[in-house]
Hints:
The chain is α/β, with parallel strands linked by helices. It has helices spanning about 5-10, 40-45, 70-80, 125-130, 175-185, 210-220, 225-240, 245-255, 275-280, 335, 415-435, 485-500, and strands at about 35-40, 55-65, 85-90, 100-105, 105-110, 115, 120, 135-140, 145, 160-165, 165-170, 265, 290, 295-300, 305-310, 315-325, 350-360, 370-375, 380-385, 400-405, 440-455, 475.
Amino acid sequence: MDRRSFIKTSAAGMTLPFWLQSCELPFFKVGYPIQLTSDDATGHQVMNDLAYPVHKKETVDVLIVGGGLSGLAAAYQLKERRLNFVLYELSDRLGGTSAAINYQGSRLAQGAHYDLDYPDHYGKEVIDLLSSLGIIQYQPWSRSWSFTDQQHIIPVTRRQQCYDDGEIRAEVIATGPDRNRFLELVGSFTDHMPLPIRLIDDKFRHLNAISFAQYLKDEMGLNAELKRQVDYHMMDDYGGRSDQVSALAGIHYFACRPYYREVVNLFSPPQGNDYFVQRLLGTIPRDKIMTQHLVLKIEKSSIHYTVDILDVKNHRIIRQNADQVIYAGQKHALKYIAPGQEKLFAHETAPWMVVSLVCNQKPNQYGHWQNEYLGSNKSFLGFIDSSVQANPTLHGRRVFTGYYCLHPGDRAYLNTIEEHKERIVRETQGYIESMLGSSIDPEMAFANLMGHAMPIPSPGYLFQDANVHPDAEMIYSGVDNGRLPLLFEALDSGIQAASVASGLR
Ligand SMILES: Cc1cc2nc3c(=O)[nH]c(=O)nc-3n(C[C@H](O)[C@H](O)[C@H](O)COP(=O)(O)OP(=O)(O)OC[C@H]3O[C@@H](n4cnc5c(N)ncnc54)[C@H](O)[C@@H]3O)c2cc1C
């Protein structure tokens, strides 16, 4: 956006995203390379009529669209059931919002970065999957499943600190009577908020109809200060404030594990949840997985599906028939890929941006893993400090991974990020330095932009499973099918989709 259109937009009263709000400022040069990844440009090719040669491929039992955790979990199950399948992923890397990047022999998180021990009342299907992959083991003394690679458990004393307008405190929700009443209220739901959410008892589902802020107002009163702190948590995991997400989503966040009774292990390898992606991939034959392949069109006939796929590297269209299609991609693009099907998904999604700064400085033994930021830029939520993670391949360097949850309205401006990436990275460095109280020395920055990263679980959204809708023309999977945006939900949705595809449900 140029200066004139910036002024015009401001005059029209529209809110601009933070990187365009002060275009009058001098241009920043950071002095180190920045690598920006965005699948927007490739993804937008679904809108074009592409005149490429068509190459026909043999029919498969099941064709999977999307190689995020849900698509990969579906692939794993289909392989176990010996079905003939293929998975197409538009990006050059697998994992979607749980993907990582390679940097000089080290893998670094560029999206989802952690999970926590699983209580034993969580869904058996995902527990069976993770334990068969050797990722988790049962701990009878705590009646929970914990992670086998214990070196990636973050020590409790170094888990988090919170920066709130210049002051540092231990946790986002400040100590005091409001905190006590709040934790007592949400804590009363502990043991009733399992994952996947399809296991939540019917008697709690009315909480899906109202907002979390409304629920808190009704039950205990909600002052502006507590709301601001609860809003931070909701943005950080759900991409929306407490008045935008449902009471059930909000309560689930605080009550899905016995946080206030016992220590719950937090697992965070340096590559983040790409750890799970790689473990799944290690079991799936590589010739079944095609990256840089964008699914353009899905047509259903009385006998099968015909799918057109853009082979991005070789500039050709692959046409393939399939008996079943599992659609594990983000649902907003359905209006181009399978027109009419987008009506089954009415939810709003939040764009996210992850900015990693690789620094030429030693890890700090007093650092904190998560650094939660409640400051002037409401989109910036804080950063992870690699000092607290086990990563011998980083050779003593320190990585700060900053997270931005953008407003859905900012999506219109995402194409300006390339032009403003210097400024975004410089600002990220500034927030990190202000929180650490010292300067950092980056040698390289990676920014990952995800345009439709996460479904916002607004009132009414949860449990809207498109697979039970009479107009559903294929099998749907992914966290944006009426689920919370969490790893356990992604895996469960893929397993359920594979069961439908193989006729087991
Ligand atoms: C910044 C961020 C941080 C997060 N942190 C955590 C966390 O710490 N812990 C946690 O539990 N959860 C976290 N989440 C939630 C995370 O989204 C889920 O855990 C999970 O990774 C979602 O997987 P998915 O398969 O449902 O969707 P996605 O990861 O969105 O995967 C969809 C895939 O489909 C592909 N695709 C889409 N359209 C097409 C097409 N037409 N053709 C081919 N391919 C296509 C996309 O490229 C993508 O790879 C985070 C999310 C974000 C955005």
